[in-house]
Amino acid sequence: MRVLGVDPGLTRCGLGVVDGGTGRTVSCVAVDVVRTPVDDTLERRLLAVSDAVERWLDTYRPEAVAIERVFSQHNVRTAMGTAQAGGVVALAAARRGLPVVFHTPSEVKAAVTGSGRADKAQVTGMVTRLLGLASAPRPADAADALALAICHLWRQPMRDRLAEAEARAAELVRAHQARLAAAAKAANTVSAAVPRRTKARTPGKGVRG
In order of start, what are the domains of the chain with their CATH numbers? Predict the structure, then answer.
């Protein structure tokens, strides 16, 4: 499976494509960072991110897109820009019918390093080791994008199994409810078909004159 990981942002947007093999083997296909001028207008910066993502989707043809989920930050403006960039990426993927999954930073850290509290240096180091890279991807946005792709490759099978289990459970519930409804309907039909018995009058008990 091939996944495009995206660490969204307006100033720097990390892009990383990773292939998943048998077991937990992963290999880096491409990695880069899209930069936009801070003094440019918002719409032009979003367009630059969109154009770059569109090119990557057409060039590398991933089967899924993993985007970092944005949480509120102290800098509201930065958080809004990050969310807007993520929306542009999700839209580009949706146009191609690609599944989009958002992963939290702690999920990514835990998947790659084993700890949801790992710092950026630890994430970068593990990404470099897991992918067998000659040097660490720079800046950190590039490493984060690769980490997102790895996280998705390793977590998605578990998500699929959980979804299948939930679907099977829901089907069993529906089947059980259908059987109960059918049994209740049959019982009502039998009850309606049985004639009611009238109470016989006791001999000798009539109206006295």
Answer: 2-161 (3.30.420.10)
